[in-house]
Input
Amino acid sequence: IIDIKQLTKFYEVGNQTVKALRGINLEIHKNEFVAIMGPSGSGKSTLMNIIGCLDTPTNGTYILNGTDVSKLNDNTLAEIRNKEIGFVFQTFNLLPKNTTLDNVMLPLIYAGIPKQERINKATEVLKNVGLADRINHKPSELSGGQRQRVAVARALVNNPSLILADEPTGNLDSVTSIEIMRLIEEIHEKGNTIVLVTHEPDIAQHAERIIRLLDGKISSDIKNNNR
Amino acid sequence: IIDIKQLTKFYEVGNQTVKALRGINLEIHKNEFVAIMGPSGSGKSTLMNIIGCLDTPTNGTYILNGTDVSKLNDNTLAEIRNKEIGFVFQTFNLLPKNTTLDNVMLPLIYAGIPKQERINKATEVLKNVGLADRINHKPSELSGGQRQRVAVARALVNNPSLILADEPTGNLDSVTSIEIMRLIEEIHEKGNTIVLVTHEPDIAQHAERIIRLLDGKISSDIKNNNR
Ligand SMILES: Nc1ncnc2c1ncn2[C@@H]1O[C@H](COP(=O)(O)OP(=O)(O)OP(=O)(O)O)[C@@H](O)[C@H]1O
Ligand SMILES: Nc1ncnc2c1ncn2[C@@H]1O[C@H](COP(=O)(O)OP(=O)(O)OP(=O)(O)O)[C@@H](O)[C@H]1O
Ligand SMILES: [Mg+2]
Ligand SMILES: [Mg+2]
Output
Protein backbone atom coordinates (compact mmCIF):
# COMPACT_ATOMS: atom_id res chain seq x y z
CA ILE A 1 0.00 0.00 0.00
CA ILE A 2 2.93 2.34 0.75
CA ASP A 3 6.08 1.87 -1.36
CA ILE A 4 8.83 4.42 -0.77
CA LYS A 5 12.24 4.34 -2.46
CA GLN A 6 15.29 6.54 -1.88
CA LEU A 7 13.15 9.31 -0.41
CA THR A 8 14.96 12.53 0.47
CA LYS A 9 13.73 15.84 1.85
CA PHE A 10 16.06 18.81 2.06
CA TYR A 11 15.25 22.31 3.33
CA GLU A 12 17.19 25.51 2.68
CA VAL A 13 17.41 27.83 5.69
CA GLY A 14 19.55 30.84 4.91
CA ASN A 15 22.71 29.33 3.43
CA GLN A 16 22.31 26.09 5.39
CA THR A 17 20.84 22.89 3.97
CA VAL A 18 18.87 20.84 6.47
CA LYS A 19 18.68 17.19 5.38
CA ALA A 20 15.48 16.11 7.12
CA LEU A 21 15.26 12.79 5.21
CA ARG A 22 18.39 11.29 3.66
CA GLY A 23 17.24 8.27 1.68
CA ILE A 24 14.29 6.34 3.10
CA ASN A 25 13.34 2.90 1.71
CA LEU A 26 10.10 1.63 3.16
CA GLU A 27 7.26 -0.76 2.32
CA ILE A 28 4.07 -0.91 4.35
CA HIS A 29 1.38 -3.45 3.49
CA LYS A 30 -2.39 -3.32 3.83
CA ASN A 31 -3.61 -3.83 7.40
CA GLU A 32 -0.16 -3.49 8.92
CA PHE A 33 0.22 -1.63 12.23
CA VAL A 34 3.57 0.16 12.22
CA ALA A 35 5.11 2.39 14.91
CA ILE A 36 7.78 4.95 14.03
CA MET A 37 10.14 6.09 16.79
CA GLY A 38 13.29 8.15 16.95
CA PRO A 39 14.85 11.22 18.57
CA SER A 40 13.36 14.69 18.35
CA GLY A 41 14.26 16.11 14.94
CA SER A 42 15.05 12.76 13.31
CA GLY A 43 12.49 13.20 10.49
CA LYS A 44 9.36 11.40 11.73
CA SER A 45 6.83 14.17 11.04
CA THR A 46 8.50 15.00 7.73
CA LEU A 47 8.09 11.37 6.64
CA MET A 48 4.47 11.31 7.85
CA ASN A 49 3.64 14.47 5.89
CA ILE A 50 4.99 12.92 2.69
CA ILE A 51 3.12 9.65 3.28
CA GLY A 52 -0.04 11.68 3.94
CA CYS A 53 0.34 13.60 0.62
CA LEU A 54 0.71 16.89 2.50
CA ASP A 55 4.26 17.45 1.32
CA THR A 56 6.41 16.38 -1.61
CA PRO A 57 9.88 14.85 -1.42
CA THR A 58 13.03 16.49 -2.82
CA ASN A 59 13.93 13.19 -4.51
CA GLY A 60 12.87 9.55 -4.60
CA THR A 61 9.53 7.87 -5.32
CA TYR A 62 6.35 7.30 -3.34
CA ILE A 63 3.80 4.83 -4.67
CA LEU A 64 0.49 4.79 -2.77
CA ASN A 65 -1.90 1.94 -3.61
CA GLY A 66 -0.12 1.40 -6.93
CA THR A 67 -0.18 5.05 -8.00
CA ASP A 68 2.90 7.23 -8.30
CA VAL A 69 1.91 10.16 -6.09
CA SER A 70 4.21 12.63 -7.88
CA LYS A 71 2.17 12.13 -11.07
CA LEU A 72 -1.10 13.26 -9.43
CA ASN A 73 -2.51 16.78 -9.70
CA ASP A 74 -3.54 18.81 -6.67
CA ASN A 75 -7.25 17.99 -6.93
CA THR A 76 -6.66 14.25 -7.01
CA LEU A 77 -4.24 14.53 -4.10
CA ALA A 78 -6.76 16.49 -2.07
CA GLU A 79 -9.40 13.87 -2.81
CA ILE A 80 -7.12 11.05 -1.68
CA ARG A 81 -6.26 12.92 1.49
CA ASN A 82 -9.89 13.57 2.34
CA LYS A 83 -11.31 10.13 1.55
CA GLU A 84 -8.51 7.64 2.09
CA ILE A 85 -6.30 9.10 4.81
CA GLY A 86 -7.02 10.11 8.40
CA PHE A 87 -4.26 12.31 9.84
CA VAL A 88 -3.70 13.12 13.51
CA PHE A 89 -1.29 16.07 13.47
CA GLN A 90 1.39 16.57 16.13
CA THR A 91 0.03 20.10 16.50
CA PHE A 92 -3.66 19.09 16.16
CA ASN A 93 -4.50 21.80 13.54
CA LEU A 94 -8.13 22.28 14.55
CA LEU A 95 -10.20 25.12 13.06
CA PRO A 96 -10.15 27.71 15.88
CA LYS A 97 -13.48 29.39 15.10
CA ASN A 98 -15.43 26.13 14.90
CA THR A 99 -16.81 23.91 17.62
CA THR A 100 -15.55 20.44 18.46
CA LEU A 101 -18.49 18.92 16.58
CA ASP A 102 -17.87 21.02 13.45
CA ASN A 103 -14.20 20.09 13.46
CA VAL A 104 -14.99 16.37 13.63
CA MET A 105 -17.70 16.61 10.94
CA LEU A 106 -15.33 18.23 8.43
CA PRO A 107 -14.08 14.99 6.77
CA LEU A 108 -17.69 13.83 6.42
CA ILE A 109 -18.58 16.96 4.46
CA TYR A 110 -15.82 16.08 1.98
CA ALA A 111 -17.19 12.56 1.80
CA GLY A 112 -20.62 13.91 0.83
CA ILE A 113 -22.35 12.47 3.89
CA PRO A 114 -25.80 14.06 4.57
CA LYS A 115 -26.18 16.38 7.54
CA GLN A 116 -28.00 14.25 10.11
CA GLU A 117 -25.71 11.29 9.47
CA ARG A 118 -22.70 13.60 9.90
CA ILE A 119 -24.00 14.73 13.27
CA ASN A 120 -24.61 11.12 14.33
CA LYS A 121 -21.21 9.80 13.25
CA ALA A 122 -19.29 12.73 14.73
CA THR A 123 -21.17 12.51 18.03
CA GLU A 124 -20.50 8.78 18.18
CA VAL A 125 -16.73 9.06 17.74
CA LEU A 126 -16.60 11.98 20.20
CA LYS A 127 -18.30 9.73 22.76
CA ASN A 128 -15.60 7.15 22.07
CA VAL A 129 -12.84 9.60 22.97
CA GLY A 130 -14.70 10.76 26.10
CA LEU A 131 -15.71 14.21 24.84
CA ALA A 132 -19.49 13.92 24.55
CA ASP A 133 -19.84 16.84 26.98
CA ARG A 134 -17.48 19.13 25.02
CA ILE A 135 -19.29 19.12 21.66
CA ASN A 136 -19.99 22.83 21.58
CA HIS A 137 -16.66 24.05 22.88
CA LYS A 138 -14.20 25.79 20.59
CA PRO A 139 -10.58 24.60 20.65
CA SER A 140 -9.53 27.50 22.92
CA GLU A 141 -12.11 26.27 25.44
CA LEU A 142 -10.55 22.82 25.66
CA SER A 143 -7.59 21.40 27.53
CA GLY A 144 -4.48 20.30 25.61
CA GLY A 145 -5.38 16.65 25.88
CA GLN A 146 -8.98 17.34 24.86
CA ARG A 147 -7.79 19.09 21.68
CA GLN A 148 -5.59 16.09 20.97
CA ARG A 149 -8.60 13.80 21.33
CA VAL A 150 -10.66 15.97 18.95
CA ALA A 151 -7.83 15.61 16.42
CA VAL A 152 -7.96 11.82 16.88
CA ALA A 153 -11.75 11.77 16.52
CA ARG A 154 -11.57 13.83 13.33
CA ALA A 155 -8.99 11.43 11.85
CA LEU A 156 -11.13 8.36 12.58
CA VAL A 157 -14.65 9.60 11.85
CA ASN A 158 -14.93 8.53 8.19
CA ASN A 159 -13.14 5.22 8.76
CA PRO A 160 -10.26 5.94 6.35
CA SER A 161 -8.22 3.00 5.07
CA LEU A 162 -4.92 4.63 6.13
CA ILE A 163 -4.53 6.24 9.55
CA LEU A 164 -1.44 8.39 10.15
CA ALA A 165 -1.14 9.42 13.79
CA ASP A 166 1.74 11.72 14.78
CA GLU A 167 2.17 11.35 18.57
CA PRO A 168 -1.58 10.95 19.29
CA THR A 169 -1.08 10.48 23.04
CA GLY A 170 1.64 13.08 23.73
CA ASN A 171 -0.66 15.22 25.89
CA LEU A 172 -2.66 12.44 27.54
CA ASP A 173 -2.48 10.77 30.94
CA SER A 174 -2.00 7.01 30.93
CA VAL A 175 -5.68 6.09 31.41
CA THR A 176 -6.84 8.28 28.52
CA SER A 177 -3.91 7.04 26.37
CA ILE A 178 -5.06 3.45 26.85
CA GLU A 179 -8.58 4.41 25.71
CA ILE A 180 -7.21 6.08 22.57
CA MET A 181 -5.00 3.10 21.77
CA ARG A 182 -7.95 0.74 22.18
CA LEU A 183 -9.88 2.81 19.60
CA ILE A 184 -6.93 2.66 17.22
CA GLU A 185 -6.66 -1.12 17.67
CA GLU A 186 -10.39 -1.50 16.93
CA ILE A 187 -9.92 0.39 13.68
CA HIS A 188 -6.93 -1.83 12.89
CA GLU A 189 -9.03 -4.97 13.42
CA LYS A 190 -11.50 -3.70 10.81
CA GLY A 191 -8.73 -4.02 8.21
CA ASN A 192 -7.32 -0.51 8.15
CA THR A 193 -3.60 0.31 7.95
CA ILE A 194 -2.06 2.25 10.85
CA VAL A 195 1.18 4.24 10.95
CA LEU A 196 1.78 5.80 14.35
CA VAL A 197 4.64 8.04 15.47
CA THR A 198 5.36 7.90 19.17
CA HIS A 199 8.25 8.44 21.52
CA GLU A 200 6.62 6.28 24.23
CA PRO A 201 7.75 2.63 24.22
CA ASP A 202 4.48 1.46 25.86
CA ILE A 203 2.48 2.94 23.00
CA ALA A 204 4.83 1.48 20.37
CA GLN A 205 4.24 -1.97 21.85
CA HIS A 206 0.70 -1.95 20.39
CA ALA A 207 2.22 -2.11 16.88
CA GLU A 208 3.28 -5.21 14.97
CA ARG A 209 6.43 -3.58 13.64
CA ILE A 210 8.67 -0.82 15.00
CA ILE A 211 10.73 1.39 12.69
CA ARG A 212 13.38 3.66 14.16
CA LEU A 213 14.59 6.86 12.48
CA LEU A 214 17.92 8.49 13.23
CA ASP A 215 19.12 11.66 11.48
CA GLY A 216 16.79 11.22 8.52
CA LYS A 217 17.51 7.52 7.89
CA ILE A 218 15.95 4.26 9.05
CA SER A 219 18.25 2.80 11.71
CA SER A 220 16.17 -0.30 12.43
CA ASP A 221 12.97 -2.00 11.23
CA ILE A 222 11.94 -4.87 13.47
CA LYS A 223 8.89 -7.09 13.96
CA ASN A 224 7.40 -6.67 17.43
CA ASN A 225 7.15 -10.12 18.97
CA ASN A 226 5.89 -8.95 22.36
CA ARG A 227 2.31 -8.45 21.26
CA ILE B 1 5.86 31.85 47.93
CA ILE B 2 2.53 30.61 46.52
CA ASP B 3 -0.47 30.68 48.86
CA ILE B 4 -3.80 29.69 47.30
CA LYS B 5 -7.07 29.41 49.22
CA GLN B 6 -10.48 28.20 48.02
CA LEU B 7 -9.58 28.89 44.42
CA THR B 8 -12.36 28.33 41.88
CA LYS B 9 -12.52 28.85 38.12
CA PHE B 10 -15.81 28.51 36.29
CA TYR B 11 -16.43 28.98 32.57
CA GLU B 12 -19.75 29.61 30.84
CA VAL B 13 -20.14 27.79 27.52
CA GLY B 14 -23.58 28.37 26.05
CA ASN B 15 -25.91 27.55 28.95
CA GLN B 16 -23.44 25.12 30.52
CA THR B 17 -21.12 25.97 33.42
CA VAL B 18 -17.76 24.21 33.28
CA LYS B 19 -16.20 24.03 36.76
CA ALA B 20 -12.53 23.79 35.84
CA LEU B 21 -11.31 24.39 39.44
CA ARG B 22 -13.66 23.69 42.35
CA GLY B 23 -11.86 24.90 45.44
CA ILE B 24 -8.08 24.53 45.46
CA ASN B 25 -6.05 25.03 48.67
CA LEU B 26 -2.33 24.98 48.03
CA GLU B 27 0.91 26.26 49.56
CA ILE B 28 4.21 26.08 47.74
CA HIS B 29 7.39 27.26 49.46
CA LYS B 30 10.54 28.81 48.06
CA ASN B 31 12.87 26.32 46.35
CA GLU B 32 10.29 23.54 46.35
CA PHE B 33 10.07 21.26 43.33
CA VAL B 34 6.46 20.23 42.84
CA ALA B 35 4.92 18.00 40.15
CA ILE B 36 1.22 18.27 39.28
CA MET B 37 -0.44 15.23 37.70
CA GLY B 38 -3.98 14.25 36.84
CA PRO B 39 -6.27 13.16 34.00
CA SER B 40 -6.76 15.16 30.83
CA GLY B 41 -9.21 17.99 31.63
CA SER B 42 -8.73 17.87 35.40
CA GLY B 43 -7.66 21.54 35.66
CA LYS B 44 -3.86 21.45 35.60
CA SER B 45 -3.29 24.11 32.91
CA THR B 46 -6.05 26.28 34.37
CA LEU B 47 -4.30 26.21 37.75
CA MET B 48 -0.91 26.94 36.14
CA ASN B 49 -2.32 29.94 34.27
CA ILE B 50 -3.65 31.42 37.51
CA ILE B 51 -0.36 30.77 39.34
CA GLY B 52 1.46 32.40 36.41
CA CYS B 53 -0.74 35.52 36.58
CA LEU B 54 -2.07 34.88 33.09
CA ASP B 55 -5.62 34.33 34.25
CA THR B 56 -7.76 35.36 37.22
CA PRO B 57 -9.85 33.05 39.41
CA THR B 58 -13.63 33.20 39.70
CA ASN B 59 -13.30 33.12 43.49
CA GLY B 60 -10.71 32.55 46.21
CA THR B 61 -7.37 34.20 46.93
CA TYR B 62 -3.88 33.92 45.48
CA ILE B 63 -0.99 35.43 47.40
CA LEU B 64 2.33 35.44 45.53
CA ASN B 65 5.42 36.36 47.55
CA GLY B 66 3.24 38.05 50.16
CA THR B 67 1.22 40.13 47.67
CA ASP B 68 -2.48 39.58 46.95
CA VAL B 69 -2.39 39.18 43.16
CA SER B 70 -6.02 40.33 42.71
CA LYS B 71 -5.05 43.77 44.05
CA LEU B 72 -2.40 44.36 41.37
CA ASN B 73 -2.98 46.36 38.21
CA ASP B 74 -2.19 45.03 34.75
CA ASN B 75 1.19 46.76 34.44
CA THR B 76 2.47 45.35 37.74
CA LEU B 77 1.19 41.90 36.79
CA ALA B 78 2.96 42.08 33.44
CA GLU B 79 6.17 43.10 35.17
CA ILE B 80 5.97 40.20 37.61
CA ARG B 81 5.32 37.79 34.76
CA ASN B 82 8.26 39.02 32.76
CA LYS B 83 10.83 39.26 35.53
CA GLU B 84 9.87 36.67 38.12
CA ILE B 85 8.15 33.86 36.25
CA GLY B 86 9.33 31.59 33.43
CA PHE B 87 6.42 29.79 31.76
CA VAL B 88 6.65 26.78 29.45
CA PHE B 89 3.24 26.60 27.77
CA GLN B 90 1.58 23.31 26.85
CA THR B 91 1.12 24.78 23.36
CA PHE B 92 4.57 26.49 23.27
CA ASN B 93 3.19 29.90 22.08
CA LEU B 94 6.25 30.96 20.11
CA LEU B 95 6.18 34.07 17.91
CA PRO B 96 5.74 32.58 14.43
CA LYS B 97 7.46 35.35 12.44
CA ASN B 98 10.57 35.39 14.65
CA THR B 99 13.58 33.13 14.70
CA THR B 100 14.43 30.73 17.51
CA LEU B 101 17.04 33.20 18.80
CA ASP B 102 14.59 36.13 18.80
CA ASN B 103 12.02 34.07 20.64
CA VAL B 104 14.46 33.12 23.37
CA MET B 105 15.81 36.70 23.70
CA LEU B 106 12.34 38.14 24.29
CA PRO B 107 12.33 37.87 28.15
CA LEU B 108 15.78 39.50 28.19
CA ILE B 109 14.45 42.54 26.33
CA TYR B 110 11.83 42.97 29.06
CA ALA B 111 14.59 42.66 31.65
CA GLY B 112 16.50 45.50 30.01
CA ILE B 113 19.53 43.38 29.17
CA PRO B 114 21.82 44.97 26.52
CA LYS B 115 21.92 43.47 23.06
CA GLN B 116 25.22 41.55 22.99
CA GLU B 117 24.54 40.04 26.41
CA ARG B 118 21.07 38.99 25.17
CA ILE B 119 22.63 37.19 22.23
CA ASN B 120 25.16 35.48 24.49
CA LYS B 121 22.66 34.33 27.09
CA ALA B 122 20.11 33.12 24.54
CA THR B 123 22.75 31.25 22.55
CA GLU B 124 24.03 29.62 25.74
CA VAL B 125 20.65 28.26 26.83
CA LEU B 126 19.88 27.11 23.27
CA LYS B 127 23.12 25.12 23.36
CA ASN B 128 21.92 23.56 26.61
CA VAL B 129 18.71 22.28 24.97
CA GLY B 130 20.63 20.99 21.93
CA LEU B 131 19.45 23.60 19.43
CA ALA B 132 22.63 25.55 18.68
CA ASP B 133 22.24 24.67 14.98
CA ARG B 134 18.62 25.86 14.77
CA ILE B 135 19.12 29.47 15.91
CA ASN B 136 17.89 31.07 12.70
CA HIS B 137 14.94 28.78 12.05
CA LYS B 138 11.40 30.05 12.48
CA PRO B 139 8.99 27.88 14.50
CA SER B 140 7.42 26.45 11.32
CA GLU B 141 10.89 25.22 10.32
CA LEU B 142 11.30 23.20 13.50
CA SER B 143 10.10 19.80 14.61
CA GLY B 144 7.48 19.54 17.38
CA GLY B 145 10.05 18.57 19.98
CA GLN B 146 12.39 21.35 18.84
CA ARG B 147 9.62 23.94 19.34
CA GLN B 148 9.03 22.52 22.77
CA ARG B 149 12.72 22.95 23.60
CA VAL B 150 12.68 26.55 22.37
CA ALA B 151 9.76 27.17 24.75
CA VAL B 152 11.81 25.64 27.59
CA ALA B 153 14.86 27.74 26.68
CA ARG B 154 12.77 30.92 26.63
CA ALA B 155 11.35 30.14 30.08
CA LEU B 156 14.80 29.59 31.61
CA VAL B 157 16.90 32.27 29.90
CA ASN B 158 16.57 35.04 32.50
CA ASN B 159 16.85 32.66 35.46
CA PRO B 160 13.40 33.49 36.92
CA SER B 161 12.72 32.63 40.56
CA LEU B 162 9.53 30.71 39.68
CA ILE B 163 9.45 28.22 36.79
CA LEU B 164 6.05 26.93 35.65
CA ALA B 165 6.40 24.13 33.10
CA ASP B 166 3.21 22.70 31.58
CA GLU B 167 4.14 19.28 30.13
CA PRO B 168 7.66 20.34 29.01
CA THR B 169 8.59 16.87 27.70
CA GLY B 170 5.29 15.85 26.04
CA ASN B 171 6.82 15.85 22.54
CA LEU B 172 10.29 14.58 23.41
CA ASP B 173 11.95 11.18 23.16
CA SER B 174 13.37 9.76 26.38
CA VAL B 175 16.99 10.84 25.81
CA THR B 176 16.04 14.46 25.09
CA SER B 177 13.57 14.42 28.03
CA ILE B 178 16.38 13.44 30.38
CA GLU B 179 18.48 16.36 29.12
CA ILE B 180 15.62 18.82 29.70
CA MET B 181 14.99 17.46 33.21
CA ARG B 182 18.67 17.79 34.06
CA LEU B 183 18.50 21.48 33.05
CA ILE B 184 15.44 21.98 35.22
CA GLU B 185 17.14 20.26 38.17
CA GLU B 186 20.19 22.52 37.74
CA ILE B 187 17.92 25.57 37.93
CA HIS B 188 16.28 24.07 41.01
CA GLU B 189 19.68 23.64 42.71
CA LYS B 190 20.34 27.36 42.23
CA GLY B 191 17.43 28.06 44.59
CA ASN B 192 14.56 28.55 42.17
CA THR B 193 11.03 27.19 42.69
CA ILE B 194 9.71 24.70 40.14
CA VAL B 195 6.10 23.70 39.42
CA LEU B 196 5.87 21.13 36.66
CA VAL B 197 2.77 19.57 35.11
CA THR B 198 3.33 16.15 33.61
CA HIS B 199 1.39 13.02 32.87
CA GLU B 200 4.56 10.90 32.83
CA PRO B 201 5.39 9.21 36.16
CA ASP B 202 9.13 9.05 35.34
CA ILE B 203 9.23 12.83 34.93
CA ALA B 204 7.20 13.40 38.12
CA GLN B 205 9.77 11.35 40.05
CA HIS B 206 12.26 14.24 39.70
CA ALA B 207 10.04 16.34 42.00
CA GLU B 208 10.08 16.40 45.81
CA ARG B 209 6.31 16.51 46.06
CA ILE B 210 3.54 15.20 43.80
CA ILE B 211 0.10 16.81 43.72
CA ARG B 212 -2.75 15.06 41.91
CA LEU B 213 -5.77 16.88 40.50
CA LEU B 214 -9.09 15.18 39.77
CA ASP B 215 -12.12 17.06 38.40
CA GLY B 216 -10.86 20.45 39.53
CA LYS B 217 -9.88 19.43 43.08
CA ILE B 218 -6.69 18.19 44.71
CA SER B 219 -7.10 14.46 45.28
CA SER B 220 -3.68 13.87 46.84
CA ASP B 221 -0.58 15.84 47.87
CA ILE B 222 2.32 13.61 48.82
CA LYS B 223 6.03 13.96 49.50
CA ASN B 224 8.09 11.96 47.00
CA ASN B 225 10.40 9.70 49.00
CA ASN B 226 11.89 7.93 45.99
CA ARG B 227 14.29 10.70 45.06
N1 LIG C 1 -11.93 28.83 28.01
C1 LIG C 1 -12.60 27.75 28.44
N2 LIG C 1 -13.95 27.71 28.35
C2 LIG C 1 -14.63 26.63 28.78
N3 LIG C 1 -14.08 25.54 29.32
C3 LIG C 1 -12.74 25.51 29.44
C4 LIG C 1 -11.94 26.61 29.00
N4 LIG C 1 -10.63 26.29 29.24
C5 LIG C 1 -10.63 25.06 29.80
N5 LIG C 1 -11.90 24.59 29.92
C6 LIG C 1 -12.29 23.31 30.49
O1 LIG C 1 -11.74 23.25 31.81
C7 LIG C 1 -11.28 21.94 32.09
C8 LIG C 1 -9.85 21.98 32.57
O2 LIG C 1 -8.99 22.37 31.54
P1 LIG C 1 -7.40 22.34 31.70
O3 LIG C 1 -6.83 22.88 30.45
O4 LIG C 1 -7.00 23.00 32.97
O5 LIG C 1 -7.13 20.78 31.83
P2 LIG C 1 -5.75 19.99 31.97
O6 LIG C 1 -5.75 19.28 33.27
O7 LIG C 1 -4.61 20.90 31.68
O8 LIG C 1 -5.86 18.90 30.83
P3 LIG C 1 -4.77 18.28 29.81
O9 LIG C 1 -4.02 17.26 30.60
O10 LIG C 1 -5.64 17.65 28.76
O11 LIG C 1 -3.91 19.37 29.29
C9 LIG C 1 -11.44 21.11 30.82
O12 LIG C 1 -12.52 20.22 31.00
C10 LIG C 1 -11.74 22.13 29.74
O13 LIG C 1 -12.70 21.65 28.80
N1 LIG D 1 10.27 23.84 7.01
C1 LIG D 1 11.48 23.47 7.49
N2 LIG D 1 12.59 24.17 7.17
C2 LIG D 1 13.78 23.79 7.65
N3 LIG D 1 14.02 22.73 8.43
C3 LIG D 1 12.95 22.00 8.79
C4 LIG D 1 11.64 22.32 8.35
N4 LIG D 1 10.78 21.40 8.88
C5 LIG D 1 11.53 20.55 9.61
N5 LIG D 1 12.82 20.91 9.57
C6 LIG D 1 13.94 20.21 10.21
O1 LIG D 1 13.89 18.85 9.76
C7 LIG D 1 14.23 17.97 10.84
C8 LIG D 1 13.16 16.90 10.99
O2 LIG D 1 11.97 17.49 11.42
P1 LIG D 1 10.73 16.58 11.86
O3 LIG D 1 9.59 17.50 12.19
O4 LIG D 1 10.45 15.55 10.82
O5 LIG D 1 11.28 15.84 13.15
P2 LIG D 1 10.55 14.81 14.15
O6 LIG D 1 11.28 13.53 14.08
O7 LIG D 1 9.07 14.80 13.88
O8 LIG D 1 10.82 15.46 15.56
P3 LIG D 1 9.92 15.56 16.90
O9 LIG D 1 10.02 14.23 17.57
O10 LIG D 1 10.62 16.64 17.65
O11 LIG D 1 8.53 15.92 16.50
C9 LIG D 1 14.39 18.82 12.09
O12 LIG D 1 15.76 18.91 12.42
C10 LIG D 1 13.82 20.19 11.71
O13 LIG D 1 14.57 21.26 12.28
MG1 LIG E 1 7.44 15.43 14.94
MG1 LIG F 1 -3.24 21.01 30.16
Remarks:
- The CA atoms of residues 57 and 214 of chain B lie 18 Å apart.
- Residues 174-189 of chain B form the longest helix (16 residues).
